[in-house]
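Inputs:
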Amino acid sequence: MGFLRVEGLNKAFGGLKAVNNLNFEVAEGEILGIIGPNGSGKTTTLNLVTGFLTPTSGKITFRGEDITGLPRYRISQKGIARTFQLCKPFLDFTALQNVMVGRAYGQDPSGNLKTAAVESAEILELVGMASKSNVLVSDLTVMERKRLELARALATRPVLLLLDEFMAGLNPKEADEACGLITRIRAGNVTIIMVEHIVKAVCCISNRVLVLNMGSKIAEGSPDDITHDPQVIEVYLGKSHAQH
Amino acid sequence: MSTKQIIYLALIAVILVGLALFPFMTQDDSTFNLVILVFLYMTLASSWNILGGYTGQTNLGHAAFFGAGSLATRLLWVGGFPAVPSILAGGVIAVALALAIGIPAFKLKGVYFAIGTLALALILNITIGNVFPEMSYNPAISDYQIVPRYYLFLGLTVITIAAAYFLVNSRWGLGMMAVREGEEAAESLGISALRHKLLALAASAFFAGLAGSAFAYYHVSYYLNMPFGPEWTFDPMMMAYIGGTGTVIGPIIGSIFFVGLKQLLVWNVGEYHLIIFGVLFILIVLFLPGGLVEAWKKYQRWFTRWYQRRNTSPRNVIGTGHLP
Ligand SMILES: Nc1ncnc2c1ncn2[C@@H]1O[C@H](COP(=O)(O)OP(=O)(O)O)[C@@H](O)[C@H]1O
Ligand SMILES: [Mg+2]
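Outputs:
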Protein backbone atom coordinates (compact mmCIF):
# COMPACT_ATOMS: atom_id res chain seq x y z
CA MET A 1 0.00 0.00 0.00
CA GLY A 2 0.95 3.64 -0.03
CA PHE A 3 1.08 4.31 -3.77
CA LEU A 4 -1.34 7.17 -3.29
CA ARG A 5 -2.36 8.15 0.22
CA VAL A 6 -4.98 10.75 1.09
CA GLU A 7 -5.11 11.80 4.74
CA GLY A 8 -7.64 14.06 6.46
CA LEU A 9 -8.52 15.82 3.22
CA ASN A 10 -10.89 18.80 3.51
CA LYS A 11 -12.13 21.29 0.98
CA ALA A 12 -14.61 24.03 1.83
CA PHE A 13 -16.22 26.43 -0.64
CA GLY A 14 -17.33 29.21 1.66
CA GLY A 15 -19.57 27.46 4.15
CA LEU A 16 -20.00 24.35 2.01
CA LYS A 17 -17.83 21.37 2.90
CA ALA A 18 -17.43 19.74 -0.49
CA VAL A 19 -14.91 17.21 0.86
CA ASN A 20 -15.02 16.36 4.53
CA ASN A 21 -12.14 14.63 6.35
CA LEU A 22 -11.53 12.11 3.61
CA ASN A 23 -9.02 9.27 4.09
CA PHE A 24 -8.19 6.60 1.55
CA GLU A 25 -5.32 4.77 -0.09
CA VAL A 26 -4.73 3.38 -3.53
CA ALA A 27 -2.49 0.37 -4.12
CA GLU A 28 -0.27 0.18 -7.16
CA GLY A 29 -1.96 -1.63 -10.04
CA GLU A 30 -5.53 -1.55 -8.77
CA ILE A 31 -8.64 0.06 -10.17
CA LEU A 32 -10.37 2.08 -7.47
CA GLY A 33 -13.92 3.18 -8.14
CA ILE A 34 -15.29 6.28 -6.45
CA ILE A 35 -19.06 6.60 -6.61
CA GLY A 36 -21.64 8.87 -5.06
CA PRO A 37 -24.68 10.94 -5.96
CA ASN A 38 -24.41 14.31 -7.74
CA GLY A 39 -22.68 16.91 -5.62
CA SER A 40 -21.13 14.38 -3.24
CA GLY A 41 -17.61 15.71 -3.87
CA LYS A 42 -16.21 13.24 -6.41
CA THR A 43 -14.92 15.82 -8.87
CA THR A 44 -13.62 17.97 -6.04
CA THR A 45 -11.63 15.01 -4.70
CA LEU A 46 -10.17 14.41 -8.13
CA ASN A 47 -9.32 18.11 -8.48
CA LEU A 48 -7.55 18.05 -5.12
CA VAL A 49 -5.42 15.04 -6.03
CA THR A 50 -4.42 16.50 -9.41
CA GLY A 51 -3.64 19.97 -8.08
CA PHE A 52 -6.57 21.73 -9.75
CA LEU A 53 -7.73 22.75 -6.29
CA THR A 54 -5.75 23.35 -3.10
CA PRO A 55 -7.12 21.58 -0.03
CA THR A 56 -8.31 23.57 2.97
CA SER A 57 -6.40 21.00 5.02
CA GLY A 58 -5.07 17.48 4.65
CA LYS A 59 -2.21 15.71 2.97
CA ILE A 60 -1.74 13.87 -0.31
CA THR A 61 1.26 11.57 -0.67
CA PHE A 62 2.21 10.00 -4.00
CA ARG A 63 4.89 7.29 -4.02
CA GLY A 64 6.14 8.53 -0.66
CA GLU A 65 6.34 12.18 -1.75
CA ASP A 66 4.11 14.93 -0.37
CA ILE A 67 2.41 16.47 -3.42
CA THR A 68 -0.14 18.59 -1.57
CA GLY A 69 -0.43 22.02 -3.17
CA LEU A 70 2.04 21.37 -6.01
CA PRO A 71 1.20 23.18 -9.26
CA ARG A 72 -1.00 21.00 -11.44
CA TYR A 73 1.51 20.81 -14.30
CA ARG A 74 4.17 19.52 -11.86
CA ILE A 75 1.76 16.83 -10.68
CA SER A 76 1.20 15.79 -14.30
CA GLN A 77 4.97 15.58 -14.80
CA LYS A 78 5.15 13.24 -11.80
CA GLY A 79 2.98 10.75 -13.66
CA ILE A 80 -0.56 11.57 -12.53
CA ALA A 81 -2.92 12.15 -15.46
CA ARG A 82 -6.60 12.98 -15.53
CA THR A 83 -9.57 13.39 -17.82
CA PHE A 84 -12.32 15.96 -17.36
CA GLN A 85 -15.98 15.27 -16.68
CA LEU A 86 -16.79 17.64 -19.54
CA CYS A 87 -14.18 16.88 -22.20
CA LYS A 88 -11.71 19.69 -22.74
CA PRO A 89 -10.15 18.95 -26.12
CA PHE A 90 -8.02 21.51 -27.97
CA LEU A 91 -10.73 22.40 -30.46
CA ASP A 92 -8.60 23.90 -33.24
CA PHE A 93 -6.25 20.91 -33.25
CA THR A 94 -6.47 17.61 -35.05
CA ALA A 95 -6.76 14.45 -32.96
CA LEU A 96 -3.05 13.76 -33.46
CA GLN A 97 -2.01 17.26 -32.40
CA ASN A 98 -4.10 16.90 -29.24
CA VAL A 99 -2.23 13.76 -28.28
CA MET A 100 1.13 15.23 -29.28
CA VAL A 101 0.76 17.88 -26.58
CA GLY A 102 0.67 15.16 -23.95
CA ARG A 103 3.62 13.36 -25.52
CA ALA A 104 5.71 16.54 -25.85
CA TYR A 105 5.17 17.43 -22.18
CA GLY A 106 4.04 15.23 -19.29
CA GLN A 107 6.28 12.54 -17.90
CA ASP A 108 9.31 11.41 -19.92
CA PRO A 109 8.48 13.69 -22.89
CA SER A 110 9.64 12.95 -26.44
CA GLY A 111 12.85 14.69 -27.45
CA ASN A 112 11.37 16.25 -30.57
CA LEU A 113 8.03 16.74 -32.29
CA LYS A 114 8.67 14.09 -34.95
CA THR A 115 9.10 11.39 -32.30
CA ALA A 116 6.11 12.82 -30.44
CA ALA A 117 4.00 12.48 -33.60
CA VAL A 118 5.03 8.85 -34.15
CA GLU A 119 4.41 7.90 -30.53
CA SER A 120 1.12 9.79 -30.48
CA ALA A 121 -0.11 7.88 -33.51
CA GLU A 122 0.55 4.64 -31.61
CA ILE A 123 -1.49 5.89 -28.65
CA LEU A 124 -4.36 6.86 -30.95
CA GLU A 125 -4.29 3.33 -32.30
CA LEU A 126 -4.44 1.90 -28.77
CA VAL A 127 -7.72 3.74 -28.11
CA GLY A 128 -9.12 2.81 -31.52
CA MET A 129 -8.77 6.23 -33.11
CA ALA A 130 -6.04 5.56 -35.67
CA SER A 131 -8.29 6.46 -38.58
CA LYS A 132 -9.23 9.80 -37.00
CA SER A 133 -5.67 11.03 -36.64
CA ASN A 134 -6.01 14.00 -38.99
CA VAL A 135 -9.61 14.87 -38.18
CA LEU A 136 -10.32 18.15 -36.41
CA VAL A 137 -11.85 17.77 -32.95
CA SER A 138 -14.96 19.67 -34.05
CA ASP A 139 -15.75 16.78 -36.42
CA LEU A 140 -15.54 14.06 -33.73
CA THR A 141 -18.49 12.39 -32.01
CA VAL A 142 -18.92 12.38 -28.21
CA MET A 143 -17.49 8.88 -27.86
CA GLU A 144 -14.55 9.77 -30.09
CA ARG A 145 -13.86 12.86 -28.01
CA LYS A 146 -13.82 10.72 -24.88
CA ARG A 147 -11.36 8.33 -26.46
CA LEU A 148 -9.24 11.28 -27.53
CA GLU A 149 -9.27 12.71 -24.03
CA LEU A 150 -8.10 9.35 -22.76
CA ALA A 151 -5.38 9.11 -25.42
CA ARG A 152 -4.15 12.57 -24.53
CA ALA A 153 -3.93 11.70 -20.85
CA LEU A 154 -2.12 8.45 -21.69
CA ALA A 155 0.34 10.37 -23.83
CA THR A 156 1.82 11.88 -20.67
CA ARG A 157 2.88 8.30 -19.72
CA PRO A 158 1.04 8.29 -16.39
CA VAL A 159 1.41 5.70 -13.66
CA LEU A 160 -1.81 6.91 -12.05
CA LEU A 161 -4.82 7.84 -14.16
CA LEU A 162 -7.93 9.56 -12.80
CA LEU A 163 -11.09 9.34 -14.91
CA ASP A 164 -14.01 11.65 -14.16
CA GLU A 165 -17.33 10.07 -15.23
CA PHE A 166 -15.80 8.51 -18.30
CA MET A 167 -18.82 6.21 -18.71
CA ALA A 168 -21.44 8.95 -18.49
CA GLY A 169 -23.54 9.35 -21.62
CA LEU A 170 -22.39 6.14 -23.28
CA ASN A 171 -24.87 3.54 -24.53
CA PRO A 172 -24.46 -0.05 -23.21
CA LYS A 173 -22.36 -1.14 -26.18
CA GLU A 174 -20.05 1.86 -25.87
CA ALA A 175 -19.82 1.35 -22.10
CA ASP A 176 -18.70 -2.23 -22.74
CA GLU A 177 -16.03 -0.99 -25.14
CA ALA A 178 -14.92 1.60 -22.58
CA CYS A 179 -14.61 -1.11 -19.88
CA GLY A 180 -12.45 -3.15 -22.23
CA LEU A 181 -10.31 -0.12 -22.97
CA ILE A 182 -9.79 0.72 -19.29
CA THR A 183 -8.91 -2.89 -18.48
CA ARG A 184 -6.34 -2.84 -21.27
CA ILE A 185 -4.82 0.41 -19.93
CA ARG A 186 -4.68 -1.12 -16.48
CA ALA A 187 -2.80 -4.09 -17.95
CA GLY A 188 -0.13 -1.65 -19.11
CA ASN A 189 0.81 -0.94 -15.47
CA VAL A 190 -1.37 2.10 -14.95
CA THR A 191 -3.16 2.43 -11.63
CA ILE A 192 -6.64 3.83 -12.13
CA ILE A 193 -9.11 5.86 -10.10
CA MET A 194 -12.54 5.87 -11.74
CA VAL A 195 -15.08 8.40 -10.63
CA GLU A 196 -18.62 7.48 -11.66
CA HIS A 197 -22.14 8.51 -10.86
CA ILE A 198 -23.67 5.20 -11.87
CA VAL A 199 -22.87 2.23 -9.64
CA LYS A 200 -23.07 -0.36 -12.41
CA ALA A 201 -20.46 1.43 -14.49
CA VAL A 202 -17.67 0.87 -11.94
CA CYS A 203 -18.59 -2.38 -10.35
CA CYS A 204 -17.75 -4.59 -13.31
CA ILE A 205 -14.08 -3.58 -13.44
CA SER A 206 -13.12 -2.03 -10.08
CA ASN A 207 -11.12 -3.97 -7.50
CA ARG A 208 -12.38 -1.76 -4.75
CA VAL A 209 -15.07 0.88 -4.47
CA LEU A 210 -15.31 3.93 -2.27
CA VAL A 211 -18.69 5.62 -1.74
CA LEU A 212 -19.03 9.33 -1.07
CA ASN A 213 -22.04 11.20 0.20
CA MET A 214 -22.06 14.92 0.97
CA GLY A 215 -18.27 15.03 0.99
CA SER A 216 -17.74 12.11 3.39
CA LYS A 217 -16.82 8.51 2.82
CA ILE A 218 -19.79 6.34 3.79
CA ALA A 219 -18.52 2.95 2.62
CA GLU A 220 -15.50 1.22 1.17
CA GLY A 221 -15.08 -2.35 -0.04
CA SER A 222 -15.38 -4.79 -2.89
CA PRO A 223 -18.02 -4.04 -5.56
CA ASP A 224 -20.08 -6.89 -4.15
CA ASP A 225 -20.03 -5.54 -0.57
CA ILE A 226 -20.90 -2.06 -1.77
CA THR A 227 -23.95 -3.06 -3.78
CA HIS A 228 -25.34 -4.84 -0.70
CA ASP A 229 -24.48 -2.12 1.83
CA PRO A 230 -27.78 -0.74 3.25
CA GLN A 231 -26.34 2.75 3.67
CA VAL A 232 -25.26 2.86 0.03
CA ILE A 233 -28.63 1.60 -1.14
CA GLU A 234 -30.30 4.25 0.99
CA VAL A 235 -28.19 7.06 -0.47
CA TYR A 236 -28.87 5.94 -4.01
CA LEU A 237 -32.49 4.79 -3.83
CA GLY A 238 -33.97 6.37 -0.74
CA LYS A 239 -35.01 4.88 2.63
CA SER A 240 -37.91 2.74 1.43
CA HIS A 241 -35.65 0.56 -0.74
CA ALA A 242 -33.14 -0.04 2.04
CA GLN A 243 -35.80 -1.69 4.21
CA HIS A 244 -36.61 -4.40 1.66
CA MET B 1 11.30 17.26 -48.99
CA SER B 2 7.98 17.28 -50.77
CA THR B 3 7.37 19.08 -54.06
CA LYS B 4 5.17 21.55 -52.23
CA GLN B 5 7.96 22.44 -49.81
CA ILE B 6 10.42 22.92 -52.67
CA ILE B 7 7.97 25.25 -54.42
CA TYR B 8 7.49 27.26 -51.22
CA LEU B 9 11.23 27.52 -50.60
CA ALA B 10 11.85 28.59 -54.19
CA LEU B 11 9.10 31.21 -53.90
CA ILE B 12 10.58 32.58 -50.68
CA ALA B 13 14.05 32.70 -52.27
CA VAL B 14 12.72 34.62 -55.29
CA ILE B 15 10.92 37.12 -53.07
CA LEU B 16 14.01 37.62 -50.88
CA VAL B 17 16.30 38.13 -53.85
CA GLY B 18 13.81 40.57 -55.35
CA LEU B 19 13.64 42.55 -52.09
CA ALA B 20 17.43 42.51 -51.74
CA LEU B 21 17.79 43.95 -55.25
CA PHE B 22 15.00 46.46 -54.77
CA PRO B 23 17.33 49.45 -54.02
CA PHE B 24 18.92 48.94 -57.45
CA MET B 25 15.57 49.35 -59.13
CA THR B 26 14.38 52.61 -57.62
CA GLN B 27 15.77 55.89 -56.34
CA ASP B 28 12.41 57.24 -55.26
CA ASP B 29 12.32 58.10 -51.55
CA SER B 30 8.55 57.85 -51.20
CA THR B 31 8.65 54.30 -52.62
CA PHE B 32 11.31 53.39 -50.06
CA ASN B 33 9.29 54.94 -47.26
CA LEU B 34 6.20 53.01 -48.26
CA VAL B 35 8.03 49.67 -48.39
CA ILE B 36 9.76 50.41 -45.07
CA LEU B 37 6.34 51.13 -43.55
CA VAL B 38 5.09 47.72 -44.75
CA PHE B 39 8.19 46.05 -43.24
CA LEU B 40 7.65 47.88 -39.96
CA TYR B 41 4.03 46.76 -39.82
CA MET B 42 4.93 43.18 -40.73
CA THR B 43 7.36 43.11 -37.79
CA LEU B 44 4.84 44.62 -35.39
CA ALA B 45 1.93 42.45 -36.54
CA SER B 46 4.02 39.24 -36.56
CA SER B 47 5.45 39.94 -33.13
CA TRP B 48 2.00 40.78 -31.72
CA ASN B 49 0.75 37.52 -33.23
CA ILE B 50 3.24 35.36 -31.28
CA LEU B 51 1.47 36.27 -28.06
CA GLY B 52 -1.98 37.38 -29.25
CA GLY B 53 -2.52 34.86 -32.02
CA TYR B 54 -0.58 31.79 -30.96
CA THR B 55 -0.78 32.00 -27.19
CA GLY B 56 -4.20 33.65 -26.95
CA GLN B 57 -3.14 36.48 -24.61
CA THR B 58 -4.58 39.82 -25.66
CA ASN B 59 -1.89 42.47 -25.58
CA LEU B 60 -3.48 45.92 -25.90
CA GLY B 61 -0.21 47.78 -25.35
CA HIS B 62 2.21 46.55 -27.99
CA ALA B 63 3.11 50.24 -28.53
CA ALA B 64 4.74 50.25 -25.08
CA PHE B 65 7.36 47.77 -26.32
CA PHE B 66 7.74 49.49 -29.68
CA GLY B 67 8.08 52.82 -27.89
CA ALA B 68 10.53 51.53 -25.28
CA GLY B 69 12.78 50.12 -28.00
CA SER B 70 12.68 53.34 -30.00
CA LEU B 71 13.31 55.52 -26.95
CA ALA B 72 16.29 53.51 -25.74
CA THR B 73 17.90 53.41 -29.17
CA ARG B 74 17.25 57.05 -29.94
CA LEU B 75 18.70 58.28 -26.64
CA LEU B 76 21.78 56.05 -26.86
CA TRP B 77 22.44 56.67 -30.51
CA VAL B 78 21.86 60.44 -30.40
CA GLY B 79 24.03 60.41 -27.27
CA GLY B 80 26.92 59.08 -29.32
CA PHE B 81 26.67 55.30 -28.91
CA PRO B 82 27.35 53.17 -32.04
CA ALA B 83 24.22 52.20 -33.94
CA VAL B 84 24.32 48.40 -33.60
CA PRO B 85 24.56 48.13 -29.77
CA SER B 86 22.01 50.95 -29.50
CA ILE B 87 19.58 48.97 -31.61
CA LEU B 88 20.11 45.73 -29.68
CA ALA B 89 19.64 47.61 -26.39
CA GLY B 90 16.17 48.62 -27.62
CA GLY B 91 15.14 44.97 -27.90
CA VAL B 92 16.53 44.12 -24.47
CA ILE B 93 14.81 47.06 -22.76
CA ALA B 94 11.50 46.07 -24.33
CA VAL B 95 11.84 42.51 -22.96
CA ALA B 96 12.65 43.83 -19.47
CA LEU B 97 9.58 46.07 -19.56
CA ALA B 98 7.42 43.21 -20.86
CA LEU B 99 8.47 40.85 -18.07
CA ALA B 100 7.95 43.57 -15.46
CA ILE B 101 4.30 43.89 -16.50
CA GLY B 102 3.81 40.27 -17.62
CA ILE B 103 4.90 38.38 -14.52
CA PRO B 104 2.42 40.01 -12.10
CA ALA B 105 -0.37 40.32 -14.68
CA PHE B 106 -0.22 36.68 -15.81
CA LYS B 107 -0.12 35.47 -12.21
CA LEU B 108 -3.41 37.28 -11.61
CA LYS B 109 -4.97 35.65 -14.72
CA GLY B 110 -8.14 36.98 -16.35
CA VAL B 111 -8.21 40.40 -17.98
CA TYR B 112 -5.34 41.87 -15.95
CA PHE B 113 -2.86 41.42 -18.75
CA ALA B 114 -5.03 43.13 -21.37
CA ILE B 115 -5.81 46.04 -19.05
CA GLY B 116 -2.25 46.20 -17.69
CA THR B 117 -0.67 46.47 -21.15
CA LEU B 118 -3.27 49.03 -22.27
CA ALA B 119 -2.54 51.16 -19.19
CA LEU B 120 1.22 50.75 -19.56
CA ALA B 121 1.24 52.12 -23.10
CA LEU B 122 -1.09 54.97 -22.14
CA ILE B 123 0.96 55.99 -19.11
CA LEU B 124 4.27 55.78 -20.98
CA ASN B 125 2.83 57.84 -23.85
CA ILE B 126 1.90 60.65 -21.47
CA THR B 127 4.99 60.41 -19.26
CA ILE B 128 7.51 60.36 -22.10
CA GLY B 129 5.64 63.27 -23.69
CA ASN B 130 6.12 65.27 -20.48
CA VAL B 131 9.74 64.29 -19.88
CA PHE B 132 10.83 64.88 -23.49
CA PRO B 133 8.60 67.65 -24.84
CA GLU B 134 11.04 68.64 -27.61
CA MET B 135 11.34 67.26 -31.10
CA SER B 136 14.17 64.74 -31.53
CA TYR B 137 16.36 65.29 -34.62
CA ASN B 138 18.38 62.64 -36.40
CA PRO B 139 22.08 63.32 -35.79
CA ALA B 140 23.00 61.94 -39.22
CA ILE B 141 20.67 64.35 -40.99
CA SER B 142 23.39 65.91 -43.16
CA ASP B 143 24.33 62.64 -44.86
CA TYR B 144 21.10 60.71 -44.32
CA GLN B 145 20.89 57.62 -46.51
CA ILE B 146 17.73 55.62 -46.98
CA VAL B 147 19.28 52.44 -48.43
CA PRO B 148 20.99 51.19 -45.22
CA ARG B 149 17.71 51.81 -43.40
CA TYR B 150 15.88 49.81 -46.02
CA TYR B 151 18.22 46.85 -45.46
CA LEU B 152 17.91 47.19 -41.71
CA PHE B 153 14.14 46.89 -41.94
CA LEU B 154 14.32 44.08 -44.49
CA GLY B 155 16.70 42.13 -42.23
CA LEU B 156 14.58 42.75 -39.15
CA THR B 157 11.40 41.65 -40.92
CA VAL B 158 12.98 38.45 -42.25
CA ILE B 159 14.46 37.60 -38.84
CA THR B 160 11.17 38.29 -37.04
CA ILE B 161 9.11 36.17 -39.42
CA ALA B 162 11.70 33.36 -39.42
CA ALA B 163 11.91 33.41 -35.61
CA ALA B 164 8.11 33.34 -35.34
CA TYR B 165 7.99 30.43 -37.79
CA PHE B 166 10.57 28.33 -35.95
CA LEU B 167 9.14 29.16 -32.54
CA VAL B 168 5.57 28.23 -33.36
CA ASN B 169 6.65 25.02 -35.06
CA SER B 170 8.70 23.95 -32.07
CA ARG B 171 7.68 22.08 -28.92
CA TRP B 172 7.30 25.45 -27.17
CA GLY B 173 5.03 26.59 -29.98
CA LEU B 174 2.82 23.53 -29.57
CA GLY B 175 2.65 24.29 -25.85
CA MET B 176 1.76 27.93 -26.52
CA MET B 177 -1.10 26.92 -28.81
CA ALA B 178 -2.30 24.36 -26.26
CA VAL B 179 -2.42 27.15 -23.65
CA ARG B 180 -4.48 29.21 -26.09
CA GLU B 181 -6.86 26.32 -26.74
CA GLY B 182 -7.38 25.54 -23.06
CA GLU B 183 -5.22 26.43 -20.12
CA GLU B 184 -6.62 23.77 -17.79
CA ALA B 185 -6.24 20.95 -20.29
CA ALA B 186 -2.74 22.16 -21.18
CA GLU B 187 -1.63 22.21 -17.56
CA SER B 188 -3.17 18.78 -16.96
CA LEU B 189 -0.73 17.53 -19.61
CA GLY B 190 2.33 19.00 -17.90
CA ILE B 191 2.54 22.47 -19.43
CA SER B 192 3.33 25.49 -17.29
CA ALA B 193 0.98 28.09 -18.77
CA LEU B 194 2.84 30.92 -17.04
CA ARG B 195 6.21 29.98 -18.54
CA HIS B 196 4.77 29.63 -22.03
CA LYS B 197 2.99 32.97 -21.80
CA LEU B 198 6.15 34.66 -20.57
CA LEU B 199 8.28 33.15 -23.33
CA ALA B 200 5.77 34.26 -25.96
CA LEU B 201 5.60 37.71 -24.38
CA ALA B 202 9.38 38.06 -24.27
CA ALA B 203 9.74 37.03 -27.94
CA SER B 204 6.87 39.31 -28.91
CA ALA B 205 8.29 42.30 -27.02
CA PHE B 206 11.84 41.68 -28.26
CA PHE B 207 10.90 42.04 -31.91
CA ALA B 208 8.53 44.94 -31.21
CA GLY B 209 11.41 46.61 -29.35
CA LEU B 210 13.77 46.03 -32.28
CA ALA B 211 11.15 47.48 -34.61
CA GLY B 212 11.16 50.56 -32.38
CA SER B 213 14.96 50.66 -32.54
CA ALA B 214 14.93 50.49 -36.32
CA PHE B 215 12.28 53.20 -36.32
CA ALA B 216 14.52 55.41 -34.14
CA TYR B 217 17.43 54.87 -36.51
CA TYR B 218 15.24 55.57 -39.53
CA HIS B 219 13.06 58.51 -38.59
CA VAL B 220 14.46 61.99 -39.21
CA SER B 221 12.55 63.95 -36.62
CA TYR B 222 9.68 63.08 -34.28
CA TYR B 223 8.44 63.57 -30.75
CA LEU B 224 9.83 60.81 -28.53
CA ASN B 225 6.41 59.80 -27.22
CA MET B 226 5.01 59.35 -30.74
CA PRO B 227 5.96 55.63 -30.96
CA PHE B 228 3.98 55.04 -27.73
CA GLY B 229 0.74 56.13 -29.46
CA PRO B 230 -2.21 53.67 -29.52
CA GLU B 231 -2.11 53.42 -33.32
CA TRP B 232 1.11 51.39 -32.98
CA THR B 233 -0.87 48.82 -31.01
CA PHE B 234 -4.17 48.77 -32.81
CA ASP B 235 -3.07 49.03 -36.44
CA PRO B 236 -0.77 45.96 -36.23
CA MET B 237 -3.44 44.12 -34.25
CA MET B 238 -5.96 44.86 -36.97
CA MET B 239 -3.48 43.64 -39.60
CA ALA B 240 -3.00 40.36 -37.75
CA TYR B 241 -6.79 39.89 -37.60
CA ILE B 242 -7.32 40.83 -41.25
CA GLY B 243 -4.67 38.36 -42.41
CA GLY B 244 -5.42 35.69 -39.83
CA THR B 245 -4.18 35.39 -36.26
CA GLY B 246 -2.37 32.24 -35.24
CA THR B 247 -0.78 31.79 -38.67
CA VAL B 248 2.67 32.91 -39.78
CA ILE B 249 1.47 34.21 -43.14
CA GLY B 250 -1.58 36.08 -41.76
CA PRO B 251 0.19 39.18 -40.39
CA ILE B 252 2.31 39.40 -43.57
CA ILE B 253 -0.74 39.43 -45.83
CA GLY B 254 -2.60 41.67 -43.38
CA SER B 255 0.16 44.29 -43.42
CA ILE B 256 0.32 44.45 -47.21
CA PHE B 257 -3.47 44.55 -47.46
CA PHE B 258 -3.74 47.22 -44.76
CA VAL B 259 -1.11 49.57 -46.19
CA GLY B 260 -2.39 49.06 -49.74
CA LEU B 261 -6.00 49.71 -48.81
CA LYS B 262 -5.05 52.68 -46.64
CA GLN B 263 -3.16 54.29 -49.52
CA LEU B 264 -6.14 53.78 -51.82
CA LEU B 265 -8.63 55.14 -49.30
CA VAL B 266 -6.51 58.13 -48.25
CA TRP B 267 -6.27 59.15 -51.90
CA ASN B 268 -9.98 58.72 -52.47
CA VAL B 269 -11.88 59.44 -49.26
CA GLY B 270 -9.32 61.14 -46.98
CA GLU B 271 -9.98 60.90 -43.26
CA TYR B 272 -13.04 58.69 -43.73
CA HIS B 273 -10.66 55.77 -44.18
CA LEU B 274 -10.62 55.40 -40.38
CA ILE B 275 -14.34 54.61 -40.33
CA ILE B 276 -13.98 52.16 -43.19
CA PHE B 277 -11.15 50.37 -41.36
CA GLY B 278 -13.19 50.22 -38.17
CA VAL B 279 -16.14 48.65 -39.99
CA LEU B 280 -13.86 46.23 -41.84
CA PHE B 281 -12.25 45.13 -38.58
CA ILE B 282 -15.62 44.47 -36.94
CA LEU B 283 -16.87 42.55 -39.98
CA ILE B 284 -13.77 40.35 -40.00
CA VAL B 285 -13.89 39.61 -36.28
CA LEU B 286 -17.60 38.75 -36.54
CA PHE B 287 -17.80 36.85 -39.82
CA LEU B 288 -14.27 35.76 -40.64
CA PRO B 289 -12.47 35.15 -37.35
CA GLY B 290 -9.64 33.40 -39.20
CA GLY B 291 -9.05 36.39 -41.51
CA LEU B 292 -7.99 36.19 -45.14
CA VAL B 293 -6.03 32.97 -44.56
CA GLU B 294 -9.18 31.25 -43.33
CA ALA B 295 -11.15 32.63 -46.27
CA TRP B 296 -8.57 31.19 -48.65
CA LYS B 297 -8.67 27.78 -46.92
CA LYS B 298 -12.48 27.75 -47.08
CA TYR B 299 -12.33 28.55 -50.77
CA GLN B 300 -9.78 25.76 -51.31
CA ARG B 301 -11.93 23.24 -49.46
CA TRP B 302 -14.98 24.32 -51.41
CA PHE B 303 -13.04 24.10 -54.66
CA THR B 304 -11.69 20.62 -53.86
CA ARG B 305 -15.18 19.38 -53.05
CA TRP B 306 -16.61 20.93 -56.18
CA TYR B 307 -13.80 19.45 -58.27
CA GLN B 308 -14.31 15.99 -56.78
CA ARG B 309 -18.03 16.09 -57.24
CA ARG B 310 -17.51 17.05 -60.86
CA ASN B 311 -15.26 14.02 -61.30
CA THR B 312 -17.72 11.90 -59.28
CA SER B 313 -14.93 10.64 -57.07
CA PRO B 314 -16.28 8.83 -53.99
CA ARG B 315 -13.26 9.78 -51.87
CA ASN B 316 -13.93 12.19 -49.03
CA VAL B 317 -11.70 15.07 -48.05
CA ILE B 318 -10.69 15.25 -44.45
CA GLY B 319 -8.84 17.99 -42.61
CA THR B 320 -5.25 18.82 -43.34
CA GLY B 321 -2.74 17.20 -41.03
CA HIS B 322 -0.10 19.84 -40.50
CA LEU B 323 0.13 22.31 -37.66
CA PRO B 324 -1.78 25.54 -38.12
N1 LIG C 1 -15.52 25.74 -7.56
C1 LIG C 1 -16.57 25.57 -6.72
N2 LIG C 1 -17.06 26.60 -6.03
C2 LIG C 1 -18.10 26.44 -5.19
N3 LIG C 1 -18.71 25.26 -4.97
C3 LIG C 1 -18.27 24.19 -5.64
C4 LIG C 1 -17.18 24.28 -6.55
N4 LIG C 1 -16.94 23.05 -7.08
C5 LIG C 1 -17.85 22.23 -6.53
N5 LIG C 1 -18.64 22.90 -5.66
C6 LIG C 1 -19.70 22.30 -4.84
O1 LIG C 1 -19.13 21.24 -4.13
C7 LIG C 1 -20.02 20.14 -4.08
C8 LIG C 1 -19.35 18.92 -4.64
O2 LIG C 1 -19.23 19.09 -6.04
P1 LIG C 1 -18.53 18.03 -6.99
O3 LIG C 1 -17.25 17.62 -6.39
O4 LIG C 1 -18.48 18.61 -8.35
O5 LIG C 1 -19.57 16.83 -6.95
P2 LIG C 1 -19.69 15.53 -7.85
O6 LIG C 1 -18.54 15.50 -8.80
O7 LIG C 1 -19.68 14.41 -6.89
O8 LIG C 1 -20.99 15.62 -8.57
C9 LIG C 1 -21.28 20.56 -4.81
O9 LIG C 1 -22.23 21.01 -3.87
C10 LIG C 1 -20.81 21.70 -5.68
O10 LIG C 1 -21.85 22.61 -5.91
MG1 LIG D 1 -18.51 15.51 -10.88
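Remarks. Residues 4-79+159-242 of chain A form a domain with the Rossmann fold fold (CATH 3.40.50.300). The longest helix of chain A spans residues 172-187.
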